[in-house]
Amino acid sequence: MTSPSFLTLNLVSGLAGAGKSSIARASGRTSISLDGADRAAVSGAIAGTGTRSEVMLEIHPSAVPLEVAVAVMAAGGDLVLHSEAGAIRLGNFVSVLDASTFWRDIRSDKLAPEPPQPCATHGEHDRTVADALVQQIEWASVVVINKTDLSTAAECADLRDFVRLLNPSCQVIFARHGHSSVSAWLPPRVDMLTWLQQSPGWIRQLNGEGLLASGRTGLGYVVYRDPRPFHPGRLASFLSDTSTESGEILRSRGLFRLASRPHVVGSWNSAGPTIAFEPTSMGSHDPESPWGQEIAFFGRNLDGARLTANLDACLLDDREFIGGPMEWRSLTDPFPAWDLNQDDD
Ligand SMILES: Nc1nc2c(ncn2[C@@H]2O[C@H](COP(=O)(O)OP(=O)(O)OP(=O)(O)O)[C@@H](O)[C@H]2O)c(=O)[nH]1
């Protein structure tokens, strides 16, 4: 009996010029660029891998690593037909960060580069550079902080601490021109997809894991919970206030409810200066669905008491709350309408 052979695909993400190719070269791995995130793009990219047992798939800066991984698994059947490897397996999810530009990029509201070809998983292109960066960190098993020669040791350590805040489970490696001074990547996990889905710091904070944050450079987190819904007008004023009295929020993620849309559980998602609200598919009365707010904030010099007080002021007060959902619906709501029938299209 012959032992099964595998083609291991490491998914590599990073903004343009972060050092993805340098890392492939330094580690002696073949690198293939993946222009889309759909099954056809994945099958096409892998068709030429020949007898190699491991390659690095460079995903587009605007693609979400986890979505690409799902496409890779879906394309797995086709790939077995095209490649000489016996089966496809996911390797590490590697995110490459440019230490010299990271803090500028995470604070940017610029759009990430347009994907070169439209495909289902990209949808309408509205991903910002900051959003791309946080997704790349949160869905990584290995984060390589590259171009350390262009930053001070303190800046590199600060970036490492921020990465650990957003993704406490990943392996963090420092590199120059893709060459790491420390260890090699840890071997990929067998249950990589399941494991990654529990990795992001915001999921772990909301699950109550209470992870310790580094206080050295002021990086930290605040978890906000309250069973009451937000008043839409007061929440909009809070979001438009650019003062940093309660610290600098660099990332926030969670679930929330607007009083004017009482039966929809909303997704709260901010990266750098940009925030996006979307409806979730969670049922209003599901035991898993929060009644009000469950949001994890990550940033620098966060003043938990002040941030909590500011958010409390956005909730319905006692008099408004007693009015009930019929009255709440008539509150002026400045946020864009949600398409609640997306899945029915
Ligand atoms: N100073 C410095 N330059 C680096 C380092 N790593 C890569 N570079 C340079 O940065 C540029 C981009 O590096 P690549 O490895 O091609 O980056 P990439 O992410 O593959 O770039 P794209 O494929 O264009 O997205 C090249 O000119 C590299 O020589 C590093 O650690 N330090």
UniProtKB/TrEMBL annotation:
Protein name: GTPase, G3E family
Pfam families noted in UniProt: cobW, CobW_C
Alphabetized UniProt keyword annotations: Chaperone, Hydrolase, Nucleotide-binding
Annotated source species: Cryobacterium levicorallinum
SUPFAM superfamilies for this protein: Hypothetical protein YjiA, C-terminal domain, P-loop containing nucleoside triphosphate hydrolases
Protein family according to the UniProt entry: Belongs to the SIMIBI class G3E GTPase family. ZNG1 subfamily.
Domain CobW C-terminal as annotated: residue spans: 219-315
Gene Ontology MF, one: nucleotide binding
Transmembrane segments: none
Keyword Chaperone: yes
Record's catalysed reaction(s): GTP + H2O = GDP + phosphate + H(+)
